[in-house]
Amino acid sequence: MAEGEGEGEVDESTPLLKAEAGSDGTLVEMLQENRSRWRSIRVMYLTMFLSSIGFSIVMSSIWPFLRKVDETADASFLGWVIAAYSLGQMIASPLFGVWSNYRPRREPLIVSILINVAANILYGYVHTPPSYNKYYMLLGRAFVGFGAGNVAVVRSYVAGATSLKERTSAMANLSAGQALGFILGPALQTAMTSIGQTGLSWKLIDLELNMYTAPAFLGAFLGVVNIVLIIALFREYCVDDLGRMKSINVNIQENPEVLENSYGDIDLIAVVTSNILFFIILFVFAIFETIATPLTMDMFAWTGKQAVLYNGILLVGVGVESIVVFMATKILSRRFEDRLMLLGGFVVIFFGFFTLLPWGNQYPQIQWTEIKNASNYSSAEVKYSESFSLDAETVGCPVQQVWCQYIPIIHLAQYILSAVLIGMGYPVCNVISYTLYSKILGPKPQGVYMGWLTASGSGARTLGPVFVSQVYTRYGPRWTFGPICGIVMAATILVGLMYKRLIGFSMWYRRLQ
Predict the structure, then answer these.
(1) Average pLDDT over residues 389-393
(2) How far apart are CA 189 and CA 212, in angstroms?
(3) Among candidates 192, 232, 152, 201, which has minimal Cα distance to 445?
């Protein structure tokens, strides 16, 4: 049972409600209920983990798989395929958030995961249609993202089922589960490269199990396991600021506006600011994820298989780093304010992208340079050579990208250092942003608000890949990462300007009084 220590102090961890145990509206939490509550919270950790696996398990192989199933696809369409996941999540998050406010959360959770399972199966069969395969891949990723809209339900449940003192730690664990998904996703994809691009086939059901489709089928299987665990172990719980059970839990599901109107107004400016900051955090990280494979293939002349393998290894390393940072954040949050840690995280992210700016006098290897320079090849032969697909194992920076001829390369050491810095700053900003957001909302039902927060992050994941695929293809890394540095700097300034308003609901309510 949570204890209310330091009740004389007024800070963001001070509870607004100070009703004694057993008073109207609260119940003493028994040991068995405590265990069941935390068991349900851990199921939400797993759900977040599997949701991130659904995003990351195919990330490093989308580009070569897209080129394999549809040769008409280009780097610009790649941005749309990656953005489709986040667009689906952006649409679904508020819907699932509203659903979770009015109905038991088990319903939107199970339905969303079923959609995710079906979408992964569609992705695994994207090679089957005789034409327009790239659009089927786009549709599959969109519905995988739609199913991932349950992240809003997960976050709102964890926020409502934990006390103020438990919340930062619980949110950090939730983020650690998400980071672990980002680790194991690329790791599983990397392990499955041993299956090869041909793999196994079963013509009776048109099944092709290869390094590109196997991760999707694995994601579908894990979704089924997740549904079984939710049915067997998940239970609804809601506690107050001190961690005491709320007896009005059932009524909240039936009539959430009762609780919505029973407290003072929240600071809407702080809410909007938090959504903007969360959008920027996800926007810049989505850009880094999207550009990894094309960038390394252009800069380091890697083949598609090498890019999948090496970027998978790098993302695993970044994921391990992120988990360490999440654990460190739980410790540091006891000594430093959330706002200060958020500020520091943005500074580290800024230096991470600043490191990616190209310099020097070494330029990328251009594809088909030898063919174009050889006098014994006709222009028709050159044109034919430039139409080779990824299977021809042509490497280097495509000649169609004119900037490859005058923009210096990004050295491998730059790329690795940038990944380390971003992998350090992003986890801090991620966990602190929505932990602080849940504190700003206070005791109000958070399903809808968490839906909007998740939607803002999904919007960032939608626009980020589109932005980077368009700008990078036309103007190169300098005009890609330069504006990103400016955006991160603007976010840092915004945190400074809004520093006094990014506080918990308890402090805001007392300030109004």
Answers:
(1) 47
(2) 8
(3) 152
Would you state the structure tokens that stand for residue 448, as one six-digit string?
Answer: 């809808």
Contacts of 410 (CB under 8 A, 6+ apart): 295, 299, 356, 358, 477
Structural domain spans, the chain: 26-358+410-512
Could you give the angle at which helices 412-441 and 505-512 cross, rounded to 10 degrees? 50
Query: Quick one: pLDDT band at residue 111, thresholds 50, 70, 90?
Result: very high
Q: pLDDT value at position 244?
A: 61
Give the tens place of pLDDT for each residue, 209-225: 888 888 888 888 989 99
The residue count of the chain comes to 513
| Tokens found for residue 23 | 């008073």
Residues whose CB is less than 8 angstroms from the CB of residue 436 and which lie 6 or more positions away in sequence, other chains included: 274, 338, 339, 342, 502, 504
**Token pair 């955006």 is at which residue?**
487
What's the CATH code, domain 26-358+410-512? 1.20.1250.20
What secondary structure letter does DSSP report for 19? P
Q: Coil, strand or helix: which one is 252?
A: helix
Q: What CA–CA distance (Å, rounded) separates 368 from 385?
A: 7
3-class secondary structure per residue, 396-423 = CECCCCHHHHCCCCCCHHHHHHHHHHHH
Q: What is the rounded distance in angstroms from the CA atom of residue 466 to the CA atom of residue 479? A: 14
Mean pLDDT of 376-381: 43
Integer Cα distance of 361 and 407 in angstroms: 9
Radius of gyration of the chain (CA): 24
Please report the sign of the dihedral spanned by the C-alpha atoms of residue 73, residue 74, residue 78, residue 79.
negative
Residues 6+ apart with CB under 8 A from 427: 175, 179, 322, 325, 326, 329, 345
Half-sphere exposure of 143 (CA within 13 A, CB side): 19
Task: Tell me how many degrees the CA angle 99-427-93 measures, rounded to the nearest 5.
Answer: 15
CA distance 238 to 205: 46
Question: Is the pTM higher than 0.85?
Answer: no
Three-state helix/strand/coil letters over 113-127? HHHHHHHHHHHHCCC
